[in-house]
């Protein structure tokens, strides 16, 4: 970690997330920090944080707290790369560094009773996030979405701060009405 801006962000994000255990309050406290961090991205993003792959969007770890209570990734989205339908089981704050990141939401119609079957989802709205934009989400009920870049747009790069080490998330099969936990890969910093 070589940037004072990144060090300050990590210190403030750690302190604020500890002070605000409620996830909705936590993202309120952290979103302004992300807004500022985007503008400092040039001071700490290095070539390894821009790694990408033709196989799919690429998650590059920037910081992982020793107690795994906080993690920060850069994600690189090449044209046409999308996540599956998922939620994170965590709060998250996302900031866009380059390009336009698109988020398409899903709305859960069936009550969330913790079961992984008989889940009814319908498609919701979309948001288009340019450089400088910040969005966030909280769990319980989880925020279900797909995120990515349509084939006709150029590369996007975004920063993702989560309330845990994000090594797995919940994947939904909308047609089968099911979800399952799945490990997700990342590149080490
Ligand atoms: Fe997500």
Give short descriptive properties of this protein.
alpha+beta, Jelly Rolls, five-stranded antiparallel beta sheet, 2 helices, binds fe (ii) ion, dioxygenase, RmlC-like_jellyroll, CDO_1
How does the SSE layout of this entry go?
Layout: H1 4-19, H2 23-39, E1 58-64, E2 71-77, E3 86-87, E4 92-98, E5 101-108, E6 121-129, E7 134-137, E8 144-148, E9 156-162, E10 168-173, E11 178-183
Antiparallel strand pairs: 1-2, 2-9, 3-10, 4-7, 4-9, 5-6, 5-8, 10-11
Bound molecules: fe (ii) ion.
Residues 86, 88, 145, 147 line the site of fe (ii) ion.
How does this model look, in words?
The protein is α+β, with helices and mostly antiparallel strands and 189 residues long. It has a single domain (4-183), classed as Jelly Rolls, CATH 2.60.120.10. Helix content is 17%, strand content 36%. A hairpin with a 4-residue loop joins strand 10 and strand 11. Helix 1 (4-19) packs antiparallel against helix 2 (23-39). The chain is globular. The N and C termini lie close together (9 Å). 30% of the residues are buried. Fe (ii) ion is lined by residues 86, 88, 145, 147. Fe (ii) ion binds at residues 86, 88, 145, 147.
